[in-house]
Amino acid sequence: MSRSDVHDPMNDRPDDALDVAIDRALREITAVDPPQRMTSTVMARIEGRNPRRERMRRSWPLAATLAAAALVALAVGVSIVSRGRVERATPQTAAPQTARPGAGAPLAPHTTAPMIASATGTADAAERTSASAHVPAVSARAHDRAVAAAASGLEPAIAIGPIAAPAPIAIDDIAPEAAVLAPLGIQEIEIEPIEVDEVVKR
Amino acid sequence: VTDAELVDRARGGDAAAFGVLVERHRSAVYRAALAILGSAADAEDVAQDALVAAYQKLAGFRGDAAFKTWVLSIAWRHALDRRRSMAMRLRRFVSPDPDAWPEAAEPGAGPDEALVGSEFRGQVRRLVKTLPAKLRDPLLLWASGDYTYDEMAAVLGIPSGTVKWRVMEARRQLREKLLNLGYVAK
Description:
The complex is a heterodimer of chains A (202) and B (186). Chain A is mainly alpha-helical and 202 residues long. Helix content of chain A is 50%, strand content 9%. Chain A has a three-stranded antiparallel β-sheet with strand order 2-1-3. Chain B is mainly alpha-helical.
């Protein structure tokens, strides 16, 4: 059947050059032939052979090899990344617990109760004390008392820590306090666990 | 050998006879699928599925319509299902098919003519896509020249007169759009 047989009979306007060009373009757009393999593929499927499945079956050793290689590469990558993390983490935990801004947040070791926190001040404390000052882990209440005692003019300030064991505090939680302690002339806070009897004797 | 004879032989177990039918109608089936889907790869898949389905349903073919119309109807339904499928919509949205609407060769055209023709075809192709499906589908079926109005009516499930009107309306809209783009009717 030619195209002219199905040409629009309802169009009473004679075709002009644009109509002809449109029809030709449409014909060229739609006149696409299917791939030659279509008949053989269809017949193979009808006869129970699935060419796709056969191709997959033939290519499975290659696919398995590639998958294994990808798995090995993934395992190596994970190993490298985890080793790198361990290496980065080790110096932090091995070094003294120094308050550093933005540093990780290792937990302070548990301190035994009761505790005494003494705050000592020096002349150049303000210069030496900074955000990176050496501030050991200390209970929050003992720390507050030391600050209060220093502010009230007691020198050296002595504060009796809480009887209950303090909850562990991350260094980062204390680090900002270094900026508070510096103007007060407190260079560092030392914590020494003692027995209650010793306090009484003093 | 007529289609009816080949169908009878295929029903009797002669797969080769069905192979002749496939070879005879594969272009029409493929172009119908391409008209709906606009993607060469999808059209090939659907055409294959439709032809295999036709073989499996051959026992149910009563012969009321021509074999070509019957197999085209199957392909049309398959293609519509594919077009409606969410996967195809997503794929179109994410990455347009590079094989969509493969270029047909333009015989006997010089380089300049080919360039102008190619540009014009590109415009027509783009504008055809903007037509609503109910106008675009009959227009592309009609343009392929593979089908009569009665065949298109049977495949589309609408009266033949409606098919004619839709084809005419699609051509009219296409012409108007091209005139708006500055193409002139000499």
